[in-house]
Amino acid sequence: MKKLKTVVFNATGTGMISMAGAVRRIEEELPGRMEVQARTNDDLFDSRMMDRFTRHLQTADCVIVILHGGRKSFRFFDRLIEESRNAFVFIQPGDEDEMSLSARYSTEYGSDFFDEMVRFIKFGGRENWTNLLRSLIRRFSGEDIPYDPPQKMPSEGIYHPRTGVSLTLNEYMNSQGTSLKELEDKKTPIIGVWFYQGYYVDGNLAFVDSLVNEIERQGCFPVACFYNRFPDRILNNRDPEWVAENFFQVDGKTVIHVLLSCMVFSMRLTLPKFAGVYEKIGVPVLQAITLFTTRRNWEENEQGATPMDVCISAAQPEFDGILITVPVSTRDVAGQDMLTGATMLRNMPVEERIEKIVSLAGKWAMLGIKPNAEKRVAVIFHNYPPRDDRIGCAAGLDSFKSVKNILDRLKQDGYSIEREYESGDALAHEILDRVTVDRRWLTPEAMAQKAADRIGPAQYSAWHEGLAEKNRKHMVRDWGDIPGGLFVHEGEVMVNGIINGNVYIGIQPPRGFVEQPEKIHDPHLAPSHHYIFHYRWIRDVFKADAVLHIGKHGSLEWLPGKSLALSQECYPDISIMDLPNIYPYIINDPGEGTQAKRRSYACVVDHLIPVMTNADRYEELAEVDTKILEYIQTKSMNPERLPVLRNEIWQLAAKHNLHSDMEVSEDEALSDFDAFVERLHSYLSEVADTAINDGLHVMGSPPRGGGLAELVVQLVRYRNGDVPSLREAIAKQWGYDYDELLQHRGRPDPTGRFPTNAVAITEIHRAALEVARVVIEGGKPLIADESPEVRRVVEFIRDIVLPKLAQTTEEIDSVAAALSGRHVLPGGSGAPTRGMVEILPTGRNFYSADPFRIPSPAAWITGSALGDALVKRHLDETGRPPESIGMVIWGSPTMRTMGEDIAEALYLMGVKPVWNSRNGRVEGLEIIPAAELKFPRVDVTFRTSGFFRDSFPNLMDLLDEAVAMVTALDEPVENNFLRKHVLTEAEELVKRGIDPEEALREASFRIFSDPPGVYGAGIPAAIDAKAWEKSEDLGEVYITWGGYAYGKGVYGEDRRDVFRRRLSDISLVVKNEDSREYDLLSSDDFNAYFGGFAAAVKTVSGNYPKAYSGDASDPDRVRYRSIHEEVKHIFRSRILNPKWIEGLMRHGYKGAGDLSRAVDISFHWDATSDVMEDWMYDALSEKYALDEKMQEWFKEVNPYALQNIAERLLEAASRGMWNASEETKKRLEAVYLDVEGDIEERTDV
């Protein structure tokens, strides 16, 4: 009797366990009648394995193919079909591509036999596979072998390892011997779980069993159900909404308190019809990560998760507002099936992590059960640098006023709060009166007196012993034996902050680099004993039910450890433990907020940006510009006065150092004065027309009055999708070419309406503000009747913008909701003023981007424009295109812009993405033909942030692939600088005895980042700790932290030697900014990565490279400035602008701290890149430190800020960075000593 040879290919392996069981059963029933060879993608991972497999295909009678995502889900699909040409072929239909493939290649597509096979496989399970195999033997042998028709398995049900499957909630409760009423009376947390039906059908339930058992062990009640997410006409399965209504709700009321989701992908993206199901359930949803990697790989790899895991178990679920947590299973090899040759994969439980997620779920559940009056909440302010002027540092947020608002709401909701605060400053000053993390002002004895609590040896010793041995050794190595030396007195550890009823308000402990500057060159520095003990105290002594981290951002989520799917040895996991973490975060920083979500399990509640306004003309700039307008009008009216005005304008420009901004001498200016005036007038217009923030945002407080109009105009300054720009629409109605106005601001107005284009732009902006004011007041602007485009924007403001801004109150509502154990709605993220009004309102748990849709086609357009602008700028300056450049790549801009920086990098290399036309995903790259290039292919070296490395491993590989493709091109090296440099270096390496293949790989390394598991560039701490003497010292720090190579097959190899070689060739470093909501002086990160890059090049080559800052705030009009130009632009528009300073002054202590940090960051940039001129330091000292009114204000609200400003300016002078006059130095010293005395008097116990 002939043996039926059958081959099964299953892309994912789902169902293989059932299939293998069926084969064994057939062998028992019909021995020798059938041979089955089965493989998955895990088996056929390279061409060598496929070669071996082809011999089975060539002799097969029947080939069954089960794909998952069409042709792309199996790289050898075409070869499989070719080798199966003599066999009966069956392709299981699925998505659109699979339907097409099945129709094309299946032998009996559409027949009754084909349809029966579809149902056998679709229904799944061992019985169906057994009957499928019987039917095949019957079909090919002609024998009357009996078999049963396809039997439908339960599509959905509630599962328990002891009682099996229940089809209704009532049936399940009866099977467990309890009732919902009994559970409610006992206040038992009910934890829902949902997972794929395929796990149930396959019997792949070990991790589900562990989850259910652990839920019960911890005193909670499980409701674990399975279902198929996607509707299927054959399965006739229930949809997710039905499952939620019937298994998690009774009569429309949710009965579970929290939901653990073992499902991957996003409901919102894949099944938008059911996007609201989690809102309907209404409880926190935690992602129980089911990893697509083995236990060993997960344990040993700092990456923690595969690129696919990052996408489907983190990035996509975040679109649904799901909280990312820890892995509950790994995908492990259960052995190779002896009969079929298939690798058997099972989802094996990670027991310790299951214990963790259940504990975390239980605490989220208790927030929905416990009365508010009994809840205890910890509020944590961030504090970097760890100085008393910077407590509550949070980008764009008045953190203290925001916390006051939160406390007021909690008091209203019945929380036990003893003291109310008149203002945010009152709260700040109460904290300052106690123990902070600035050790300069209190003795250990004074700290002990003022501490919120003291932790004794017995307690912290137990905590330390509870850590993994690896962590204990690491911490002792870095910080000595417990309790260490930070905030310790007589063997006790001090707890900072204050306790107000059932609320603890404290400060996050310092990261440690400033405290141990000798550790600057160790990116893996462990957090201090004090750091870990502080969070343990919050949970175990204060007994917090939840913690709030206030604003962007702290250090916890950046501690060493895995990037995703953290283990118990990862320091963020050690620190946050099982505390529900609620994290107010600015909406325009999705990357760093996502870091908090993925590495500290945070529920983000996003908040609005500060009001944005135009910088406008002020003081000396207004004086010069007024004189220029007088000059322009005098040319036609009173020309004999021109020589006098020329002299006055030059003298004013020189007095205020504007000639430095213009990089022009007096002789050059006077040789063509009209051209100089046009340039200067245009520059002053650009400065005045720059958007800056006016003060800080306060959570729950929508902008009002003039601030509302200002923000509205900035929100519609650029087009929002198909809604035109308001300014551009007004310009068009007035008869202007808007682009012409922007490009030639200094020229005369061609319409004659205004003296110059610059004045026209100012008046257009004023008109836009008037339109906004009228709409806000409920009126209709007259211009809307004259212009359909203006009318469209007016309707957009009225119907969309204003209602969304009014919902800003929901920021506080969402914090309260999270503390009540309710689901916080998801929302978009990005820069609202970049034409992204659709991401509002705030008060949402924001999501970011699908990594596999980056770069998007829109990003390619802007990225290409950036590439053209970059090359043009370099050509204009040097007469040649750039040959070797360094580019900084961050995660947040990648998310906000959908990959404009990536697109630009690819464009510069002469490579283009290939997109899937159906789903927009990037499927590969294609070379741009040489004939289509505008310039030679550029050699680009990347320094990515650690967050980018973690969130976009697919893009790291994509960039590496682009390098390989361009290097392999057979082109003249004068047209391909990348190939030129790689081949030259590879040749040198071969001469040194390195294997040619290894030499080529080493020579092609272009992607560098931090070591695996750590983050940052090291430079801010080095500067703030004064652990440097010259810029080269900072360059060495940059190389130490960033010299690790990444790419295909390479993950974080220490290749600082190769990084140095790259740095030696770089002549230009680049970083782009996509919004004016932040700039190079907004935080120390910009200098750390960008300024540090320049310093590193200088360290290796001896010379600073050119450094260009890209401005893509208007994606339709991109441009580049040098960092010297950009820093001066920021100084003129923001740092020295009374409008900006006064805006911060409205926020008291927090505003003063932000002014103090602005001085720090200016100093930081000078330390790395030599960008500060004497006049800039002079202006800072006069406006910030030496002005008597400012001194009085600082002393009242935040004397520590004035002390730091004076100290930092004196440091600049002492280091020779600023040639300050002796008188200025004496005045600064007097200010410093005076305020230091005041502080010591205040802090004296």
Overview of the molecule:
This protein is an alpha/beta fold. It has 6 domains: 4-141, Rossmann fold, CATH 3.40.50; 157-367, Rossmann fold; 372-607, no CATH class; 613-807, no CATH class; 861-1127, no CATH class; 1136-1243, no CATH class. Helix content is 49%, strand content 14%. It is built from 54 helices and 37 strands. It has an 8-stranded mixed beta sheet with strand order 6-5-8-7-11-12-13-14, sandwiched between helices. Strand 13 and strand 14 form a beta hairpin. It is globular, with a radius of gyration of 33 Å.
> First CA to last CA: what distance?
99 Å
Mean pLDDT value: 97
Unreliable runs, pLDDT <50, ≥5 residues? Answer: none
- Domain module count: 6
Q: Biggest sheet, in brief?
A: 8 strands, mixed
Query: What count of helical segments does DSSP give?
Result: 54
Query: Based on helices, strands and strand pairing, what is the structural class?
Result: alpha/beta
Question: TL;DR of this structure?
Answer:
This protein has 1245 residues and is of the alpha/beta class. The chain is 49% helix and 14% strand.
Can you lay out the helices and strands and say which pair or pack?
Elements: E1 4-10, H1 16-29, E2 34-40, H2 47-58, E3 62-66, H3 77-83, E4 88-91, H4 96-105, H5 112-123, H6 126-141, E5 157-160, E6 164-166, H7 169-176, H8 180-185, E7 190-196, H9 197-202, H10 206-217, E8 221-227, H11 240-247, E9 249-250, E10 253-254, E11 258-261, H12 267-270, H13 277-281, E12 285-290, H14 295-300, H15 307-318, E13 323-336, E14 343-349, H16 351-367, E15 377-381, H17 399-412, H18 424-432, H19 444-450, E16 453-455, H20 457-465, H21 469-479, E17 488-489, E18 492-495, E19 498-500, E20 503-507, H22 529-541, E21 546-550, H23 571-576, E22 581-586, H24 590-600, E23 602-607, E24 612-614, H25 619-637, H26 642-655, H27 658-662, H28 666-671, H29 673-688, E25 691-693, H30 705-715, H31 726-733, H32 738-743, H33 757-776, H34 782-786, H35 788-806, H36 810-819, E26 826-827, E27 845-846, H37 857-878, E28 884-889, H38 891-897, H39 900-909, E29 911-915, E30 922-927, E31 939-944, H40 946-951, H41 953-967, H42 977-991, H43 996-1003, E32 1007-1009, H44 1019-1024, H45 1031-1042, E33 1044-1047, E34 1050-1054, H46 1056-1065, ...
Parallel strand pairs: 1-2, 1-3, 3-4, 7-8, 7-11, 11-12, 12-13, 15-20, 15-21, 21-22, 22-23, 26-27, 28-31, 28-35, 31-32, 35-36
Antiparallel strand pairs: 5-6, 5-8, 9-10, 13-14, 16-18, 17-18, 19-20, 24-25, 29-30, 32-33, 33-34, 36-37
Helix pairs in contact: 1-6, 5-6, 10-16, 17-18, 25-26, 25-29, 29-33, 30-33, 31-33, 31-35, 33-35, 37-39, 39-41, 42-43, 45-47, 46-47, 47-50, 49-50, 50-53, 51-53, 52-53, 53-54
